[in-house]
Amino acid sequence: MRAVQIDKPGSLELVERERPKPGPGQVLVQVHACGVCRTDVHLLDGELQIPSPPIVPGHQIVGTVLEHGPGGGETELYPAGARIGIPWLGWTCGRCRYCLSGRENLCDRARFTGMDIDGGFAQLTLADERYCFALPEDYPDLQVAPLLCAGLIGYRALRMAGESERIGLYGFGASAHIIAQVARYQGRRVFAFTRPGDDAGQRFARELGAEWAGSSLQDPPEQLDAAIIFAPAGELLTLALRSLAKGGVVVCAGIHMSDIPSFPYEILWGERSVRSVANLTRADASEFLALAPRVPVRTTVRTYALEQALRALEDIRAGALNGAAVLELG
Ligand SMILES: [Zn+2]
Ligand SMILES: [Zn+2]
Questions:
Q1: Which numbered ligand comes closest to the C-alpha of 279?
Q2: For 295-310, how does the pLDDT look when each residue is reduced to its tens digit (9 = 90+)?
Q3: Which residue range(s) make up the domain with 102?
Q4: How many angstroms is it from 131 CA to the middle of ligand 1?
Q5: Is the pLDDT of residue 105 over 80?
Q6: CA 88 / ligand 1 centre spacing (Å)
Q7: Residue ranges with CB less than 5 Å from ion ligand 1
Q8: pTM of the model
Q9: How many distinct structural domains can be found in the chain?
């Protein structure tokens, strides 16, 4: 089968690999589409360490089950031919204090798709069935793929914003374009921040329900109750803090961020808080995948062939597309 792998920082190559063999509890999946995420860019750039390269990136996988590993029988969750989604959370230990307290996203031994386990930039992939999901039927493969990370980790970040009415979204990429729609559906007011001069991005944000869109260097027209930072730039944290009303929260939704500049205590004072969001739980995914068709969330996608994976990653790094990038595996 054909796959794209990262063998060292900066090096992405198209390779021919042997057909993977599912082990106990695993399914072999024919990949139809795989969303491309900012995290994949961090893996390629070496900002996130790949434990044992080479690895096939990609953790927003849509495909159909071809076969099960040995010993499945009655415990099989998805029959051959079923369409499933494979997300970032690929395996957890089920025994650590985090797993036992509903926080499997923080599992000490968690393994992640496309970083610890080969992912979806390939014609075929393997997955532990227990971490896969049935997908809402009215979404085609390409449109549903971005829900699997941009959507559901974005949704977890939105949940951490509590009951906030006025929400600022910093970095209007794949996640924000989905979460803006969910926030509007929940009756919140959305303020979108893009790179300075990104008029197309600001227009796109307004189309998706933002009542105000501007540059991240601008002050919003009123104070925010929460800000979610999707872009990996540490200086956004201090800008967002300065835009918050008392009691507000800044949620950092990305897995990597450049260093945060020091800031005066007075911008945190007034019970403002800062937190990060890490990974997802299976409960997050079930909740979000049930909610998305009710909104209904509409994803804007740009499709790329497997051979164009590098191009897709470069476009994300450059902020050159509105919505999400998705590899189409044919
Ligand atoms: Zn655990
Ligand atoms: Zn992701």
A1: 2
A2: 999 999 999 999 999 9
A3: 2-149+280-328
A4: 14
A5: yes
A6: 15
A7: 92-93, 96, 99, 107
A8: 0.96
A9: 2
